[in-house]
Amino acid sequence: MLRAPAAKKVVVRPMTEEDIAGVLALDRRIFGPNRALTYSDPIQDYVGGEVGPSCVAQVKGKIAGFILCQLAEPRLGLPKVAWIGSVAVDPDMRHQGIAGELVKALMKQCQAMKLKEVHIMADRHDDVLEGFLSFMQFRPAELVHYVRHIDE
Predict the structure, then answer these.
(1) The pLDDT value given to residue 43
(2) pTM above 0.85, yes or no
(3) Which DSSP state fits 72?
């Protein structure tokens, strides 16, 4: 994928509670007005305390992208890992390396927290996302997600 030259200065930093309104506004712009309602509680789930790895990217003081991440214990007794819930970039700011910078900032935060793994679930048929994740050095995990549909 060709990357357009960065036209504006991008600042990537840890997310704070004050960023929630901007994150939700960008989420609504990208995914539609009802999408943001799927977050159970973005302040509790993704900001502050143990969920501190979440980051935002700003251009001229405005949220241009975000990566929402929370900590989880895969199983009792196993060390905590980071789970990426969402990565989004303003459609007008794409192809400028913002998503990559968000992932790099997240990895630095996770490294500082002494975490050993970062996970993300993705549709195996989403070639664009798979290409990005591969570029960012994510690899398919050994765990397999199973689902059973409920008959009506």
Answers:
(1) 52
(2) no
(3) E
Q: What CATH number does domain 10-135 carry, 3.10.300.10, 3.40.630.30, 3.40.190.10, 3.30.565.10?
A: 3.40.630.30
Q: Helix (H, G, I), strand (E, B), or coil: what is residue 77?
A: coil
Q: What's the chain's average pLDDT?
A: 84
For 145, phi then psi, to 5°, come to -85, 125
Whole-angstrom distance, CA of residue 40 vs CA of residue 44? 9
* Residues 62, 81, 102: CA angle, nearest 5 degrees: 25
Contacts of 135 (CB under 8 A, 6+ apart): 1, 100
DSSP 8-state symbol, 19: G
At residue 100, the 3 state secondary structure works out as helix
Q: Residue 66 corresponds to which tokens in the numbers above? A: 């975000």
Strand pairing partners for 129? none
Q: Residue ranges per domain, the chain?
A: 10-135
